Amino acid sequence: MIRDALLVAGKDLRLEWRSRVALNQVAPFALLVLVLFAFALDPDRGLLEKATPGLYWVAVLFSGLLALQRSFSIESADGNRDALRLSGLDPAGIFLGKVMAVGLQLLALEVLLGIGVAVLYTTPITGWILLLVTAMVATVAIAAAGTLYGVVAAGLRVRETLLPLLLLPVLAPVLIGSTRAFEAALGGTPSEGWPWVGLMGVIAVLYIVAGVFGFGPLMEES
Amino acid sequence: MIPQTPTEVTGPASTGSRATRVLGLLALVALGVLVLFGLILSPADASQGESVRIMYVHVPSATVAYIGCFLTTLGSIIYLWRKSRWWELVAYAGAEVATLFTVITLVTGMLWGRPTWGVYWVWDARLTSTAMLLLLLLGYLAVRRLPADYEVRAKRAAIVGLLLVPNVMIVRKSVDWWRTLHQKPTLLSNGLDSKIEGLMLFSLFTGFIAISLVFGWLIVHRFRLAWLEEQVESEGLDIAIAERRAEALIGEVAP
Questions:
Q1: Where found in the cell (chain A) (predicted)?
Q2: B167 interaction partners in chain A (CB closer than 8 Å)
Q3: Looking at domain B18-184+197-230, which CATH architecture does it have?
């Protein structure tokens, strides 16, 4: 299962690296969202700095959606879905591999956005350990839930509109948790952030378990 | 409701039956009694005034909405486990009726909130999690109503339905934490306790009975309708094929 996961993750990441879509479109979009927030909220009144945790995670979710859509659109072309099914790979392995590939892309996006808010919103960065752990756990939760709901929406004409409707309400607790944890870290009270990390950990585990068991039946159908 | 394997399923032939006509009549009578007690016989509340009467619909609606969600998750699990189309339709009916009652809960809650709090909406834990519940239900219905084959729709909707109750619980928990970090949940905590006056308690009780009967009636009818729709869809295909065949034959006879 782990070997299959690494194979699928390697394939997806190689595809992304060679097509440069994540680099040329998703990453600039993420930065664009940061600039749009500055237009929407007056940058001179310190609002941006105060709202940094929330804006940061909303930007991660929106640009992450693009990365997720991409992860499934590469499978829908040329009957790749059938090829993946015929390949004999463990469905749970395929799921975990997709989660890993999406997760790594999300982490790269988060680093980029982190530099973006530090520079553009002049937010002082404190509480490094909590920030890093929050980002890791939230990334696993977003990638796992996103991959599971991504395959629910995959291969349909309405894919682009269906995935956000399904995924964003489900990720609301992750948005709340990661935002509160970041607020705690940046506000100098890290102890308030750790329960949120725990909640996000529960969500991550729930979706990984659901994906490992649910991916097989979802791949079986036409 | 007895779980049935697909082979031995015999569905309803129409949306009405004697039992459900009695159920519908009982629901109507109970609604009449609710109107009588809720609007006329029960007194206005000391602190909430006349708006307390909204609660006789609001609280039971919220309760049956949750029951509908549980039906959806239960039906989805049994569908995935035993491939029972019967249970899949129960899940669908549960989600649709739960959506209706969630909307009723939100609307009545807002109507109650305006005179009581002065605003239609506050970011209270219960309000927020109920709004999220509505969005999750709409997501399920969006998948269930996909323009795709029955098997595709049903299986994907079942995965979403399976996660419905866990998601509702997690959203609930996170929103509770989110709000209690800032403020104590005082607004809606004056619910059921022994201080409620006798006639008001009876009105609320009547509300539970009336809304539960309406809920049951709607679930049964939605299920039967969904069942008949599936029948029409599969039969309609057979009929269409037969018609095209007949046309082709006529075409051969008279070119």
A1: Cell inner membrane
A2: 169-170
A3: Up-down Bundle (1.20)
